[in-house]
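Data availability (excerpt). The following record was deposited with the supplementary files.
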Amino acid sequence: MKPEFESLTADATVLTRDVQFSRDTLVRYAGASGDFNPIHYRDDYAQRVGLDGVLAHGMLTMGAANSVVLDWLGGAGWIADTQTRFSRPVWVDAERGATVTVSAKVRAVDADAKRADFLLQVSYEGKTALVKAIITVQFV
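Predicted structure:
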């Protein structure tokens, strides 16, 4: 069911979803993005450069968060703008993977332009992974 623009109200949370990353996810993203830095798929290399382990690409985390909103839209609009700051790495365990939780809260509604800004809260292990994550949606 597509969301209706007219039903959006400021400060309302419109969705909360979990996104699962596996090592396969990281390798596939590396292939799609061209970012083959071994910190994203090799534990030995990540530890050698001082990391706790393999971490997800920051842009993968941002893209996954945006995809959750896009799926929720279901054709009712499109993403007109997105911005974020990366605040915490998402460590992807070889066996368990990693679960990122995304929620979207209505930040502002422009009835004349039929646009809405959403504040995304993106967390991993209960801590914020992306800050100032704002996505603007143009509704049709």
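Summary of structural features: Strands lie at 13-21, 77-86, 98-110, 115-124, 127-139.
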